[in-house]
Amino acid sequence: MSSYDRWLLRTENTTYAVRIAGEGRWAELASWGPHGTETGPSPFAVPHRTHFVTPADAAPAEYLPHGLRPFSGADLVVRRPGQERGTWWTFDSATQDGDRALRLTFADEEQGLRTALCYETVPGTDVILRWTELSCTGEEELRLERFDSAAVSIPVTDGARLTYLTGQWSQEFRRTQLELTRGRFEMASTQGVPGHAYAPWLAVQDAAEPAEGATPTYGVALEWSGNWHMAADAEPGGAVRIRAGRVPHEGAVRLAPGATLTTPRLACAFSPDGLDGLARVWHRYERRLSGERLERTRKVLYNSWEATGFDVDAAAQLELARTAADMGAELFVVDDGWFTGRHDETGGLGDWFPDPANFPDGFDHFIDEVRATGMDFGLWVEPEAVSPASRLYAEHPEWVYRIDGRPATLVREQLLLDLGRRDVQDFVVATLDRLLGDHAISYLKWDMNRPPTERGRPGGGPVEEQDLDAAHVAGYLRVLDHLRARHPHVTVEGCAGGGGRIEHATLARTDVVWPSDNTAPLDRLAIQYGYLHAHAPHTMSSWVTDSPGVFDPRPRSLAFRFVTAMAGVLGIGADIRHWSAGQRAEAARWVSRYKEIRDVVHRGEVRLLGSPADATCGVQYDEQDGARTVVTAWNTGRLDGAPLVPGRAARLRLRGLDPAARYTDERTGTVHGGAHLLHYGLPFAWTAQYDAELVVLVRQ
Question: What pLDDT is attached to residue 136?
Fold first, then answer.
């Protein structure tokens, strides 16, 4: 097969072209962009000379092992027992299903390794899924020391602009950028979850182009709920090459003769319309992941945590429930503190039975009282955790991650169950089946508040044979899959101390996720701005809480807090028992308005208008048929009563509207021309009392 043989993969608006090169030793990217770009010369085919690197090191290779690619960063490192690292494979075969799927196979008969590079397009999106299958074909086991999912090459002229999401607990999803001209950028997590510090998501642009507008923008996101890494290398051949994959807990995974390991999927996305356009590609993909559950109404919830903490009793909870129902809430969720032994952080986890002292008339009677208000009922659980003082730990200390002869570290006064064990999975499944089967529960919030520390499994065999991270992920996903199949009516919320475990494997199995424990208005606005670059609004749970709150004393109105929470899936978490009648009435009005537009927010095309660093910013949601446009807008500037610019209103220039159409403000009746909104923008006369707005424009 010559170096000119190639295969095309077509998405809704893009073409991805792959060819065999290097005399049959590797596959490389020929082009990736809008339909038609595959007809010209490859953007990587720039005449150049490269000394001190091999041709494979300089190539835009799709996936190469150490051996063929010794210098620039291999995607696969394999060792046979007693042998040096190194794989030297050749192309074996190709299987293509139209222009929607492709499988390229390479073999190293000497080493006993067969590798399949797998590609699959996602209908209705501009996303291509890539993963790798590694099979041991020899008589000796193989040690996989690195096994990334895929590599992606991006053509740039003089370096790349990388956009990624950083943070820490309570400061997740902060949009961050750097320019990579030479060298390597890498981010990772070894916390057993994707973690708060980095999201497994990256966007790449040519640094010579602006971040927004008609700028070709590439993105990748790893579908993995455990340890991971993602690296970007400025290659000597002129491209920036991205590779990503999971990180095995013990540094290597054994592959037995006849066995096959399948890597996590790497979603690869492209937009010609900058970071804002790429966000819409990811949103369409995540709506696809939701499937039929996208049509499920994301109900306005009230969560009791910030009002009562661990002090859960039926009377106080019912007072909150009745007040929340009067404001229009549709779902009441009892958070931590409802089960036996749970009076503070030190006890109870693992013993998942309602505490009779908290519910003297019975738990079902309490649920019936909540449901009598017209709301559904939901419950918080943390099924991976166990308290040392619990009955579960006394009966099954072997279920906890630990290393024999070493002390156990308490994080948040708790230990972590080894969910990779089948008996632990069965316990969690039975516990959730009992709770959801015995009680009228229609919403489950799954939390996880501590990473694995002493990650050992006594009695599990030699440590080098244990792939504990992958086993835990498999157990976690097995339980979520069971929930969806056995309890399809239950809405599932994913949480890990806030945004610690948000990626496509989780998003495909939950209905909403909790991006951060921080609900302070200005902090939350920045968190949600970053989140919406990578994830869809129908997945983003957000609460209105008290001001000043736990995290941020900066004053913001009740309107600001509601409009912020309405940018995703609206919830309320304040102690509403202490709200005035006026505040409750205002809240009821906001809830009512939200119910009228949530279908547009959750399913519409999203445009991010400015950022929280701007004095005025917003989010625009366009109904699929263009009939309505919803704009959430905020003033993040000073609140001293003075206009932002003396004598002038702030404006948000809308995008994507029909310039010839006319748009009527549903609340005020004001008519705007489409061209006017595109050119001049939507005006806002901010004051100290007026710092946020929800505008609904109806196309005439």
Answer: 98
State the Cα–Cα distance between residues 525 and 611, nearest whole angstrom: 9
Strands 217-222 and 198-206, sheet pairing: antiparallel
CA 558, 563, 567, 570 dihedral sign is positive
How open is the CA angle 27-33-39, to the nearest 5 degrees?
Answer: 75
Q: Which among 159, 165, 155 is positioned nearest to 183, based on CA atoms?
A: 159
Say how far apart CA 267 and CA 270 lie, in whole Å.
10
**What type of residue sits at position 204?**
V
Given a cut of 80, is residue 236 above it in pLDDT?
A: no
pLDDT bracket for residue 3 (50, 70, 90):
very low
Assign residue 274 a region (left: φ > 0; alpha: ψ between -120 and 50; beta: otherwise). left
β-bridge pairing 150-155 and 183-189: unpaired
The Cα 434–Cα 489 span in angstroms is 15
**Spatial distance between the Cα atoms of 193 and 381, rounded to a whole number of angstroms:** 18
Q: Half-sphere exposure of 82 toward its Cβ, with a 13 Å CA cutoff?
A: 2
Residue 20 confidence (pLDDT): 97
Tokens matching residue 199: 């999201």
pLDDT digits (tens, 9 = 90+) for 511-547: 999 999 999 999 999 999 999 999 999 999 999 999 8
Q: Say how far apart CA 17 and CA 206 lie, in whole Å.
A: 20
Residue 216 burial by Cβ neighbours in a 10 Å radius (0-12, 13-18, 19+): buried
CB proximity list for 222: less than 8 A, separation 6 or greater: 149, 200, 201, 228, 230, 244, 245, 246, 264, 265, 266, 267, 503, 504
Mapping DSSP onto H, E and C, the string for 230-255 reads: EEEEECCCCEEEEEEEECCCCCCEEE
Q: Please, which residues have CB within 8 angstroms of residue 41's CB and are 6 or more apart in sequence?
A: none
What share of the chain in percent tops pLDDT 70?
97
Residue 407, preceding bond cis, omega within 30 degrees? no
Going by DSSP bridges, is the β-strand pair 569-572/541-544 parallel, antiparallel, or unpaired?
parallel
Does the pLDDT of residue 696 top 90, yes or no?
yes
Q: Which two tokens stand for residue 449?
A: 């508040």
Q: Which helix (DSSP H) or strand (DSSP E) does residue 302 occupy?
A: strand 301-303
C-alpha closest to that of 457 among 469, 445, 447: 469
383's CB contacts (< 8 A; 6+ apart) are 352, 417, 428, 431, 432, 446, 479
Q: Token pair 């316990």 is at which residue?
A: 427
**Torsion sign (Cα): 572, 576, 582, 584:** positive
**Number of Cβ atoms within 10 Å of the Cβ of 1:** 12
CB 253 within 8 A of CB 275: no
Dihedrals phi, psi of 447, to nearest 5 degrees: -110, 160
